[in-house]
Amino acid sequence: MTVKRRFEIVVYLAFVVLIMCAPLVLDPFWLNRIAKYLVFGMLGIAVALSWGYAGILNLGQGLFFGAGAYMLAMSLKLASATSLQQGSDKPVPDFMLWNAEPGAPTQLCCINKASFLWLPFQHQWFGVAMGLVLPVAIATIIGTIVFRKRIAGVFVSIITLALVLLVRLVVIDAQPITNGFNGLTDLGWFRIADFEFDPYIVQTYYLVAGALAVVLAGARLLIETRAGLILQAIRDDQNRARYLGFNVPLYQTFFFAVSAGIAGLAGMFYVIVSEFASPTFMDLAFSITMVVWAAVGGRSSILGACIGAIIINMISATVSETQGFAEAWKAIIGLIFVLVVLYLPRGLAGIAHDLIDRFIARHSPASRLSVSATDASQPAE
Amino acid sequence: MLEILFIGLSLGSILLLVALGLAITYGAMGVINMAHGEMVMIGAYVTVLSGIWLGANIFVAIPLAFVVTALIGLLIERVVVRRLYGRLLDTLLATWGIAILIQQAVRLEFGLSFLGIHIQGLGPGLQNVSVPAVLQGTLFVGSVEINRYRTFIILVTAVLTAATWFIMHRTAIGMQVRAIIRNPKMAAACGIDVARVNALTFAFGSGLAGIAGVMMSGFKTVFPDMGTSMVVDGFMVVVMGGVGSLLGSVFSAGILGEINGVVAAGTNDILARAVVFGIVILIIILKPKGLFALKGR
Q1: At residue A10, does pLDDT exceed 70?
Q2: What is the distance in angstroms between the CA of the first residue and the CA of the last residue of chain A?
Q3: Which end of chain B is more exposed for a tag (fewer CB within 10 A), N or C?
Q4: Which residue of B lies nearest to A162 if distances are taken between CA atoms?
């Protein structure tokens, strides 16, 4: 195993070095795009953690992504210079002013019935904190209820799916405070101390890339802890783990919440680089698309799922700009997906692992034993 | 109030129409067919195309859509689903891929738009189907005003549900399907050709979705993406009713339809849908096996 492990560390490091070196060759426009793909890579990690490692196929990951995105976007909306220029001395989101009833005070406190909810978001760090706290809190509540009731498999997927659609509808319906279908646009820049993270500068790219590296390493280390190993035991056989005396719902809820937190973080970074938050984040299609990325990259590999997300988005952006392929590309994605499920259940990471195993087996006879122990179902990275 | 209840009933019957096919494929085969919504969409497009090409109305489109979607269902089962039995979540993902493929195929007019060939009626645009004069307007039953097309939908649903019940409970093949729902391995051991029955079940479920699509085309715009929300709704009904229980699907479709109708009348459509999702979540949490769970699976 040691040879294999060294291999993995090299691969992880190579990936981090690669994303860190991207600014050397790319212009700001492309850096901004790559930063978006890295955010999607972070989502891939979240999916791999809950699906590949906890065995929970969350079809509502977009809920957590959207929650993170909206929370930060509310703060950045109030930091936007243009919303200050709408005839109010205090920042009030422009859409509230447009929709305000005649005679309503142009203050966040009372411009409409629920606008006071925006008050704490005048501090950017409140938005950031909520972007993490809200997804984790929602996931903890759902997880506690669902896993205690021993709801598993497809029923968890249905609950998460229904939940994301429910929240999406509520956000759309709450037009006066969320701007409904239009979402929050025209946002200000994220700032740390006095530094403003313009989405098209190299520092913003490093912010995202650095965060991805941290999340990647963190997730990888987390699954190697005792808790992570117990989680995988639960995924493989829930009842066995229960008989062994482990508090199954606790572990499942914890990792579900961690996955939600990562998705919330990704939502915030997405807002920083793309300057909007929209109810489309909570579309069913988007949540399933995340699952597709992880499936193609390899759901039981943290790095695999991350790279899967990045690669698919890169290819899809390039191809969809080619004349005539804009729509066909989606069909190709659908086809790839069917083929991956049918013939490559372990995704690209599965191929990579097989290659590495074969390479090791050929070059060091001593490790042959450990290689044969890594059977197909075992998600050894 | 009676009008609202009637609207709820018609909403429920549409839900049931979509859910019926899902209920038997999920119940009998353990397959979550995310491409079911696309079968609805194809059914709707069959109505559009048969109107343009054949000058046929909705009544002709019903058997036509059934045949077309059943054949497509058969094809999907043969090529993809067959290899995934026993891998529930994988069927969900693979059929989602198929759903995207079908959506884009319709949008790209079966890929012919690349060759510069245009099929009238297909493509990314919106389509409307005009309903025959018989089904337009309203009836008065006493003082209650009843929309004719809604009544027609309720009737069609009732007939199809009865037919499905009859096939499931009064025919040899239906008995085989029920045996497979209860215990697929035991059924196979008793000499039932599970692969054949599965293929037929899948085709029949797809055909029902096709008919749902015909009904849908009469009051909704037809467009390539219309299927996604339907499969979600249909699936909610199936899960809430209890997997494999026809009766459960009928009841939960009725309940959800009425809730949707009543809440929509009091507030708006968006909130009504949200309330429906909320209730489904609650019911799955309280009764994970559904309202009418089969025992002894």
Answers
A1: yes
A2: 11
A3: N
A4: B277
Q: What is the pLDDT of residue A376?
A: 44
Please determine, for residue A128, whether its predicted confidence score (pLDDT) is greater than 90. Answer: yes
A365 pLDDT band, cuts 50/70/90, is: low
B93/A291 CB distance under 8 A: yes
Give the nearest partner residue to A341 out of B90, B239, B278, using CB atoms. Answer: B90
B274: contact with A, CB 8 A cutoff: yes
What tens digit of pLDDT does each residue of B153-212 get? 999 999 999 999 999 889 988 888 888 877 888 888 988 888 899 899 999 999 999 999
Asked whether the beta carbons of residue B97 and residue A335 sit closer than 8 angstroms, the reply is yes
B116 contacts chain A (CB < 8 A): no
Q: Do A338 and B97 touch (CB under 8 A)?
A: yes
Average pLDDT over residues B54-62: 86
CA atoms within 13 A on the CB side of A25: 6
- Give the residue among A219, A242, A221, A220 at the shortest CA–CA distance from A230: A242
Give the whole-angstrom CA distance, residue B216 versus residue B234: 14
Distance CA A172, CA A281 (A): 12
Which of chain B's residues have a Cβ under 8 Å away from the Cβ of A172? 270
Q: Which residue of A has its CA nearest to B102?
A: A331
Which residues in chain A touch residue B97, judged by CB atoms under 8 angstroms apart?
Answer: 292, 333-338, 341
Q: Which of A167, A179, A188 is nearest to B273 (CA)?
A: A167
Nearest Cα residue to B17 out of B196, B220, B181: B220
Q: Nearest C-alpha of chain B: how many angstroms from A279? A: 13
Q: Looking at the predicted structure, is the pLDDT value of residue A17 above 50? A: yes
Segment B263-270 shows an average pLDDT of 88
Distance of alpha carbon B26 from alpha carbon B20, whole angstroms: 10
Q: Residue A79's Cα: distance from chain center in Å? A: 25
CB contact under 8 A, B93 and A337: yes
Query: What's the mean pLDDT in A257-263?
Result: 96
Q: Is A154 within 8 Å of B88 when comparing Cβ atoms? A: yes
Tell whether ipTM is more than 0.95. no
